[in-house]
Amino acid sequence: MGPLKLVLFDVDGTLIDSQHAIVAAMEAAADEADLPLPTRADTLSVVGLSLVEAVRRLFADHPEEVQARAVESYRRAYMTGRDREGAPPFYDGILDVVRKLAERDEVLLGTATGMSRRGMRRIIDTYGLERLFATTQTADDHPSKPDPAMVLAALRETGVAPRHAVFVGDTAYDIQAGRAAGVFTIGVTWGYHAADDLERAGADAVIDTVDALVPTIDRLWSET
């Protein structure tokens, strides 16, 4: 067996289709904090950032104390919606691909997400993924992407060298974080940022379908 390898996934927009839940929670947060209602496009443009940073960017012209109220309102609204409607679904076929990668003896899997530890825990528990991920990095413990802290922490926890790691994400923030950490990056277009945004951020590859993921990972690793 060769060196250990790591496939690190963003969650919202890469593994799970959470856009309805995110938009609804942000609208509720804006309403409760008496802030202007953001457009759907504006809300989706900040997915991938930590919640605090996302709210800061959406409502940059408003006082910090108002932004802080919006953060807490968002958390309540998101969890209320999840309790009512259940966890957001995985994109079609992606969980099968993740499990296929997990069958490889030399491959470890992980997540690096702007969601909270509590939110990630609920995804893991709901879908029975307890043994799937060797490392889970959340916004509770790190600065927001595009800071590479989450990716670097995942590398340290798993002992994988950057040249043997791939970060898969749907936003420019994911790609920028991965590049700053020195790992390969794959942008996926079924999430929240357009292919052009992913390419401009410097993705090593951009893919449109779940079926392309494993061949693309293998191609990148073959170049090391």
TrEMBL record:
Gene3D superfamilies: HAD superfamily/HAD-like (3.40.50.1000), Putative phosphatase, domain 2 (1.10.150.240)
Domain of life: Bacteria
MF annotations from Gene Ontology: phosphoglycolate phosphatase activity
Single GO BP term: DNA repair
Record InterPro entries: HAD-like_hydrolase_sf, HAD-like_sf, HAD-SF_hydro_IA, HAD_2, HAD_sf, PGP-like_dom2
Regions crossing the membrane: none
Record carries keyword Amino-acid biosynthesis: no
Keywords: Hydrolase
Protein name per Swiss-Prot or TrEMBL: HAD-IA family hydrolase
Species classification: Bacteria, Pseudomonadati, Pseudomonadota, Alphaproteobacteria, Rhodobacterales
